[in-house]
Amino acid sequence: MWSIFQKREKTTSDTDYKLTVHANSSLIPSFQIPEPTRSLLWITDEDTSKISSPMEFKIVIKVTSRGVEAEAIDERYNFFSEPSLIWTKFPIEQNNELETQAMYYPSYSGLSPKHRFQYLNWLRDITQETNLSYVFLYYYGLERHMLLGNYDLAVDEVIRLINHHKKSSFRTYAINALILASGYRKKRTL
After folding, report:
1. What residues make up the domain containing 113?
2. What is 90-154 written as a DSSP string?
3. How far apart are the first and last CA of the chain?
4. Is the pLDDT at 6 greater than 50, yes or no?
5. Which terminus of the chain faces fewer neighbouring Cβ atoms within 10 Å, N or C?
6. Domain total of the chain
């Protein structure tokens, strides 16, 4: 059963679906975030007034005899409601003290400048122990990739997170998402 968490053979990736993302910001390179993590981040340098609530995400999911279908109603609106979207115009403040309190339903836009620093610093090595809220925040963006973006890279990254972050709440969400996304993408194996 747990064989899905073993390293998979690489396959040709699916066609990527991405809205305009401005990754030319010096923010991400300055933190030296490695691949594949860097490629899986959702980043914008748009005005922060465009932020919308993750609770207002507009997508229609249909389960029919033909399978599962998902349709975004307004891609631009949905993109700006992505909790993991890194807004490059938000301030960051260096902080070497890891937050220990849980931050329920975290979003990058909702983090304090010190928490943003901690999150971006953790992205340099997602296998290191951290506040579980940061793991979930990165995972939210991976979920979006599994449905609409780079499925193969995202699956590998979710499996890497599962192998290094053992909290049952995270593992349950992640395993269920892997199963659902593989069904949606009509993948027989993970």
Report:
1. 19-89+104-184
2. S------S---S--SS--GGGS-HHHHHHHHHHTT-TTS---HHHHHHHHHHHHHHHHHS-HHHH
3. 12
4. no
5. N
6. 1
